[in-house]
Amino acid sequence: MNKQRWNPERYREDAGFVPVLGQPAVELLDPQPGERILDLGCGDGALTGDLIARGAEVVAIDASPEMVAAARARGFDARLADGQVLAFAGEFDAVFSNAALHWMTAPDAVLTGVRRALRPGGRFVGEFGGAGNVQAVIDAMTATFTNHPEFGVLRLPWYFPTPEAYRKRLMAGGFRVVTLGLHPRPTPLPGDLAAWLAIFADAITSHLDTEQKRCFTEETTAHAATKLHDVKAGWQVDYVRLRFAAVLCD
Ligand SMILES: C[S@@+](CC[C@H](N)C(=O)[O-])C[C@H]1O[C@@H](n2cnc3c(N)ncnc32)[C@H](O)[C@@H]1O
Description:
By secondary structure, this protein is of the alpha/beta class.
């Protein structure tokens, strides 16, 4: 697992758009009353709650103790686990995931665990960052790191596959792909890019000291502003989502 740490309060305040904009994935899942569903990378449980509200019985897992605690505080069955080493066997009608699979950089290990966790005919439905996701932010971070050799090598903690690559993986993993596509989704931020970086670039800056982090944020924000900031509209990040539904082959 990577070094990314999560702060549920900050996430709710400055990244509440993540579960809100994950609704198309929930619609694609179309959870039914009584279905047993695994929410993979549940975060603070915002969407877990939506699945439960539709009558599903949900087990939620996440690798962040803080996020698991926040989901438990909502009264959900949330468990601390790495999605890359799932230990469930044949017990779910569906596995659902929003905005989490790109943090799991061993995708085949995820698929192996998802396949094992599902009942025959079970479905795997989700949405995560696809090829080109937050590219303007990545370009800005690259410029900052290039300016500062003392920051070391920029290591991105994300897996943003092309649709073709992920389709191949799903098929090789024993799934029939029902639908799969890229969805460019420019996303207005409730705050500024500094708040976004504080939440999502933690793993990238965890080795920097306080002054270096301040410098990283300032310079990255300045680089990104030309593409992502508008005086009237504020910040808009170039999200590109990969949304898919697949069914376990017999
Ligand atoms: C952007 S949040 C999305 C949370 C939630 N699904 C939502 O829609 O709000 C990404 C989540 O993926 C979790 N995550 C990252 N790597 C993981 C892994 N290897 N196993 C399980 N969860 C992981 C993080 O801890 C974080 O809570």
